[in-house]
Design brief:
With about 475 residues, the chain is α/β, with parallel strands linked by helices. It has helices spanning about 5-15, 25-40, 60-65, 85-95, 105, 125-135, 150-160, 175-185, 225, 240, 255-270, 370-385, 390, 410-425, 430-450, and strands at about 50-55, 75-80, 100, 115, 135-140, 165-170, 190-200, 275-285, 295-305, 310-320, 325-335, 335-340, 345-350, 400, 455, 460-464. The radius of gyration is 25 Å and the shape is elongated.
Length: about 475
C-alpha cells in the first residue's frame, strides 16, 4: 500500500464520515464551536478594535455585518460617494456614526484602528496604501489591485509599514476549504492534473444590473471624485457609478470579480504560487447594456511543475446567461479521484476512481480484429499474467464534508483578520497571496483584450 493511500485511509478513519449522503463532519462541528467561543470571549476596553468602512455598497454593508460578528469590534465611521448610502449607514448603525465622502477623513482619524475597503476596484490599491501609511490595518476587498502594475507597490507599502493587511477572499478561511486542503495533501485524489472551475448565472442582478436609487444625480453622487483616477473622464452616468463592475475603467470584469474567487481557493488548497501561461476568450453575448466587458468568458491557465505541486491546467468560465441557472463549481481532478467544491465554500465531496492493475483486454479493443487463434492465445496469456483481483477496478465509498448549518466563512475571515490586528499573528490572506491570486485573473483580461497568451512569473510576480 502506498504512503499516500495510508495517509488517505487514516484521514477517513479519524476526521470525515464516509457516506453517500451529505453529513456534517465532527471536525467541522468542533471548529465551529471554537469559532463561537472566540466570538463570545470577553473583550476588555483595551482590546476593542474601532473600524470604518470605505465604500458602503453591497460588499461594504455585507463586510461590515460580518466584521461586527467578531467580539470587541465597533463601527465608528463610514465613507461613500453617494449621500443616500451614508444616510442608510446611519439608519442601520446609529445617528452618531461618523460619515464622510472623502476617505482621507477616515484614515486621518486617530480613533480608527482598521478600515474595510469595499469601493470600486479602481480605488482599492490607492486607498490601501494611503491607509497603511496612515497607520491603519487594512481589510481590502478582492481583487486587491485594479491593474497588475499596482501589485508590487502595494506589497512594498505593507512590508514597509508592517501594518496588518488582509485580502477579502473568504474561501481561504472556510473550514470546508481547510479540510479539503488536508484531504488533498493526504493523497485523497492522487496526483492532480486538471481543475474545472466556473460561475454560472441567469438573471439581471447576477449580471450586475443592480437597482439604482431614484434620487441619483450630480447633487447626490460625487462623480468627479469617483472617476478622478480614470484616464478617460465621462459625463455623469449613473450606470457607471452604481453598476461599475460592468466597466473596465472602474471594475475588472468577470475575471477580476469572479475568477479571483476560484483561483484564491485553488491556490489555497494546492499551495500554488500561480500559473505560468494564461489565455482567455469571451463574448458580450446577452447583456448589451453599455458595458464594455464580456458576459461570457473562458480561460485556460497552465500551472507548471513546482516543489509545491505537479503540472496541471485550470479551465475557468463565467457565463452570465447560462441555461443551467445559478451554479458554482470547482472540480479538482487527480489521477485517482475528483474533489468537488460547490457553492460558497461550505462543503465538498470526493469521488475516488482507481484503475485496475491489469491493463484490460477485449471490449472496445482491437482484440476482435485478430484471428480466433490469436485471440485465444492472447486471452490465455492475459489470464496467466493477471489474477482476478488485478483485473478488478477497486471501489471506494464517496466522502462528503459539510460545514455546520449557519456557518459563514466571511465571519471567520474577519475573525482571522481581527486576531491579527490584536495579536500581530499572520493573516490568512496577505498581500502576496492576494496579488498572486488577482494578477492571473487580471492577465485573463489582458489576454482577452489583446488576443494573446500572457506569460507570468509567479515567483517574482511579474509578466514575462
Amino acid at each position: 500500500m502506498s504512503t499516500d493511500r495510508r495517509k488517505f485511509l487514516k484521514h477517513l478513519g479519524t476526521s470525515v464520515l464516509l457516506t453517500s449522503a451529505s453529513l456534517t463532519s465532527l471536525a467541522a462541528k468542533e471548529q465551529n464551536e471554537i469559532r463561537e467561543l472566540r466570538a463570545q470571549k470577553r473583550i476588555t476596553p483595551n482590546d476593542k478594535i474601532r473600524i470604518a468602512t470605505i465604500g458602503m455598497g453591497i460588499m461594504g454593508f455585507n463586510d461590515t455585518r460580518a466584521a461586527l460578528t467578531t467580539a470587541g469590534v465597533e463601527l465608528v465611521g463610514a465613507c461613500d460617494l453617494y449621500t443616500g448610502r451614508l444616510a442608510r449607514a446611519k439608519e442601520v448603525y446609529g445617528a452618531g456614526l461618523y460619515t464622510t465622502g472623502d476617505y482621507r477623513d477616515i484614515i486621518n482619524r486617530k480613533d480608527i484602528d482598521a478600515v474595510i475597503i469595499a469601493t470600486s476596484d479602481n480605488w482599492h490599491s490607492q486607498i490601501a496604501i494611503d491607509a497603511m501609511r496612515a497607520g491603519k490595518a487594512v481589510y481590502s476587498e478582492k481583487p486587491m489591485v485594479h491593474q497588475i502594475s499596482q501589485g508590487l507597490g502595494e506589497i512594498k507599502a505593507q512590508q514597509e509599514t508592517k501594518m496588518v493587511f488582509q485580502v477579502g477572499s473568504q474561501r481561504v478561511s472556510s473550514i470546508a476549504y481547510k479540510k479539503a486542503k488536508e484531504m488533498y495533501e493526504s493523497g485523497a485524489i492522487g496526483k492532480i492534473n486538471s481543475i474545472e472551475a466556473s460561475f454560472n448565472r441567469q438573471d439581471a442582478l447576477g449580471a450586475w444590473q443592480y437597482t439604482m436609487p431614484m434620487d441619483q444625480s450630480v447633487q447626490t453622487v460625487d462623480w468627479s471624485r469617483f472617476q478622478s483616477n480614470a484616464k478617460i473622464k465621462y459625463d455623469y452616468d449613473p450606470k457607471r457609478f452604481f453598476r461599475w463592475r460592468n466597466y473596465r475603467e472602474y471594475g475588472t470584469g468577470v475575471a477580476g470579480d469572479l475568477f479571483v474567487h476560484l483561483l484564491s481557493g485553488i491556490h489555497f488548497i494546492t499551495s500554488s504560487k500561480g500559473p505560468e501561461r494564461i489565455y482567455s476568450i469571451g463574448d458580450l453575448a446577452y447583456w448589451k447594456d453599455g458595458r464594455n466587458v464580456p458576459d461570457v468568458m473562458s480561460a485556460v491557465v497552465h500551472y507548471g511543475e513546482t516543489k509545491e505541486h505537479p503540472a496541471f491546467q485550470v479551465t475557468l468560465r463565467v457565463n452570465f446567461i447560462s441555461g443551467e441557472g445559478d451554479r458554482t463549481v470547482t472540480k479538482i481532478v487527480g489521477s485517482e479521484g475528483v474533489m468537488d467544491l460547490g457553492g460558497e465554500g461550505d462543503s465538498f465531496s470526493i469521488r475516488k476512481n482507481k484503475m485496475a492493475e491489469a491493463p484490460g483486454i477485449g471490449g472496445w479493443d482491437s482484440l476482435f480484429t485478430y484471428t480466433e487463434a490469436q485471440q485465444k492465445a492472447l486471452m490465455d496469456d492475459y489470464n496467466k499474467r493477471y489474477t482476478e483481483a488485478q483485473r478488478t477496478r477497486p471501489r471506494f465509498p464517496d466522502v462528503t464534508y459539510r460545514a455546520p448549518d449557519g456557518y459563514n466563512a466571511s465571519n471567520d475571515h474577519f475573525a482571522n483578520f481581527f486576531d491579527s490586528v490584536r495579536n500581530k499573528t499572520k493573516v490568512v490572506e496577505d498581500a502576496i497571496f492576494g496579488f498572486r491570486a488577482a494578477a492571473p485573473c487580471l492577465a485573463c483580461n489582458d489576454s482577452y483584450f489583446e488576443n494573446r497568451v500572457i506569460n507570468w512569473d509567479a515567483e517574482n510576480m511579474k509578466i514575462v
